[in-house]
Design a protein that fits this description.
Blueprint lengths: L1 E6 L2 E5 L2 H18 L4 H22 L7
Antiparallel strand pairs: 1-2
Helix pairs in contact: 1-2
């Protein structure tokens, strides 16, 4: 895993697929665990995960391979 500051407030991450999968799995587990104690934070994390899922669908699209 490699992390670099792209600019203030924006970090660029270079990850192996396995590393990304571990981070996303952890985030999904955290969302479920947080739901009972902090629904607002769980909702925020849920929105991040929805955005990730949308980006993943775009990445898997046939046209994305040619871009």
């Amino acid at each position: 895993m490699k992390l670099d500051w792209d600019r203030p407030g924006l970090v660029r991450a270079t990850l192996k697929v396995e590393e990304l999968a571990a981070l996303v799995a952890g985030a999904r587990m955290a969302e479920a665990a947080m739901a009972a104690q902090s629904p607002e934070q769980a909702d925020e994390l849920g929105r991040v995960l929805v955005g990730f899922d949308r980006a993943l669908i775009h990445l898997r699209a046939p046209d994305a391979a040619r871009a």
